[in-house]
Every structure is written in structure tokens, then in C-alpha cells.
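Predict structure. Chain length: 224.
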Amino acid sequence: MEDPLPKEVTEDLVKEASGTLPTRKTLIERLDNWSDWSSWDEFYRTYSGFVFHVARKAGLSDDEANDVVQETFIGVAKNLQKKKFDTSLGSFKSFLLNQARWRILDQFRRRKKQQSREANLYSDETDERRTAPIDRCADPNGMALEKLWDQEWQDKVMDLALRRVKALVSPRQYQIFSCYVLKGWSPERVKKELGVNAAQVYLAKHRVGRILKREAAKLAAEDQ
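Prediction complete.
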């Protein structure tokens, strides 16, 4: 993944993109063909890391988050097979959130049961130790998880938009843009490190930035 955008840049671009991740409707529709392994592989690669990061930030361990990913995509596959998601009827973003939310909560419930068993063995544990993780986590069943989901979704928009931009501009211009905008280098450092002049720096910033906003808007349109 590219270096994260500065906060003010991210907010401007997310506003342009309406804060949505591309559901890639044509890809989802191709998943009806169970023998189309390339589409399923692309679908998994596009969304699995996203679900993993949400699960980790919700308070799960790496192993628990990996279980969430596997169980979520099994659930998605079953629902798509049963035609329980129609790209013309709703947002894939919400559909995927519901699928992942249930699996995240399942992991907390499992942890709670395990902790309850341990609490019975160690009755002298402090109240804090005996408090179930699901009770200490940041509201996994409410607005906190949805807010976290939206934040990660916006980051994914920028990640995918940057991939598109990288294929549309020259490597040199992207390098200048990346150093100046994404990494936050000063104009002087960009000029010195890359051997370019001020005009090239500002041209790359505006040209690549304009294309990035355009691609982010296209990605948002795919989820309408």
C-alpha cells in the first residue's frame, strides 16, 4: 500500500469520492460463475485485507482476524450463490459490513466463553481481568464499528485510486507526486533528491492530483 495521504489531502479526496469503495459490480456479477477462479481470486485480493484490518482495529488478534476473513468470505460466497445480494438493489459496502460484523462478534463471543472458563479456574482474578473482552472493546455491535468501517473504506478508496493513477501517469511524475504529496517532502528536498526544478514539482502535484480526484470519483460512481 502507498504511503498514507496527509489528513487534509485525504479529506478532500474522500469528499470528491463520496466516501465509498468501488464494489466493482461487473466483478461481483462474474462471481455467479463458480468456475471463474480468476474473478474469485481478484475479489478476495481486493477485499480480504480490508476486512482483516477492520477486524484487527476492532480489537481482535491476528489469528482471530484471519478467522473473520475466512468466515466472512465463506458467508459472502454462500449469499451470492443464493442470490441474496443484487447489485441493483443495494450497496455492497453495507452487505459486506453485515457479513463481517457477525463474524467479528462471533470471535468476541468465543473469547468471552474462553475467559469465563478461565475465570472459574482463577476466582481470585481482578474484576478487570474477568470483564469479558466484548464488554471492554469499542462497541463492536454499534456505531463504533460502522465508523471504523467507513474510515477503512475511505482508505481503501485512496489505495485503489492511487493504483489506477500510477498506471495512467509517467513513473517520473508519479515519483515526484509521491514524494511531495504522499510522503510530505518539502519542495526543496524533492528538487534536491530527484534532480528536478520547482516547475516540475508543482506540475506533477496538480496534474497527478487532478487525475487522482477523477479516479476516486469514478470509483465512487461504481457503487451507485
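Summary: The mean pLDDT is 77.
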